[in-house]
Amino acid sequence: MDITTHERLLIIDFGSQVTQLIARRLRELHVYCEIHPFQNVTDAFLAEFAPKAVILSGGPASVIDADSPRPPATVFDLDVPILGICYGQQVMMEVLGGKVESGHGTAEFGRAFVTPTAARLDLLHGWFANEKEQVWMSHGDHVAKIAPGFEVFGTSPNAPFAVTADTSRHFYAVQFHPEVHHTPNGAKLYENFVRIAGFTGDWTMGAYREQAIETIREQVGQKQVICALSGGVDSSVAAALLHEAIGDQLTCVFVDHGLLRLNEADEVVTMFRDHMNLKVIHADETELFLGELDGVSDPETKRKIIGRLFIDVFQKYANEIDGAEFLAQGTLYPDVIESVSFSGGPSVTIKSHHNVGGLPAKMGLKLVEPLRELFKDEVRALGVELGLPASFIGRHPFPGPGLAIRCPGEITREKLEILRKADAVYIDQIRKHGLYDEIWQAFVAILPVRTVGVMGDGRTYDFACALRAVTSVDGMTADYYPFSHEFLGETATRIINEVQGINRVTYDITSKPPGTIEWE
Ligand code: XMP
Fold it and tell me: How high is the pLDDT of residue 470?
């Protein structure tokens, strides 16, 4: 048995910025779906994938252009329900015999309201309790004539064909984006669509776990697998899943670069080795990393050094494991989509990210990636399913280069020690006030500056630190967390009283952009 035994929905991607959100909405409904760029969807692919329903995404192109993207004609002969969204709607109309025209005052961007026509449509079940529904539009072209067999079920001021359908074939086409937040009742459309298509909602983490275990066993056989365990959610869940599948054939290497938080290395190693019985090698290479970082203050140089050493160290330990043929990685579905998306061009490098997924192909190991189909929140759910403590699964993200990038300027052992203590007090404060889960990420950065203070009757000349706490959905954009003044005051007092070496505390209120979440 493998993953293909789930009921499957196919999303054909025409390059919309929000295609991933369609997949999110469907996964929330326990429907397994995959996003594939239109040019990869050949007849052979369709036959093998055998979708139970198809969604055509939005996209930036204009169907009026001769070389604009099209779905394969055979999609419409599959005899399964199809939903076209925005560009997907227009391409459906054009291909099935309707007509699309461009702009001329009928472009719509942003909020619009759809009102129903007299006829009722199963796709709109639960809509129009308030006569009209807010939707999110983003289109320059519009449908001028609907295809034969289609009827209109909803209109908006600038989209007379906001909702159309050929009910005999279960073909649906909407001009707006039901997947975005600004279409408040959009989820109902997806709910209706998958019900119409007959999905039973068989995509659950329990079912996934069983199948993933079988797939791993089939792939790996009796061979040995190594895994770079960072203590982050992805590598931890991947390791726990692999351990359940292949037990002692898995060896984890925990590369300790000496840039972890207070007690973190011990906690991770104890949990996996002692409580979960995984084979974990604790590669304590603090001396090596801190030695090479000595005197380095440029952020990119720090990142490059840490990335390079991480690979060297991992390879050294991996070479000692007899007969290792596979390398496990916690690759997630968004990474997989990124790498195939036809619209995703190279963007400017702001920071060269380092994570355990970056191990080189030249190691000559085959990859096992048991989380490739999952989104981040599904990985968390799987982690809980596998028995990892919820407090561990819900931890804030922690960057691969660790405290190095929270220590602007030169890294010294003294600064790291102060930083660890201050960070522990800050997180303790956040937890005590019940704020931890409201915050995407919180940490302390130790600043490369000493300031004058007075404690007791004496003068102090110690480090200043900055507290950071942000809210975010995906780390791409972020806002600072609006702590109360009482909280900030209490935290500053605690840090200065409890952490020797800090005599001034500031709070960073920069959003991202223009700031980044980390200081380097
Ligand atoms: P920035 O600072 O770029 O961070 O706004 C966005 C998110 O990414 C994390 N981050 C990293 N994660 N390796 C990682 O695995 C890295 O090199 C890295 N740099 C930043 C950061 O903590 C935040 O969650």
Answer: 97
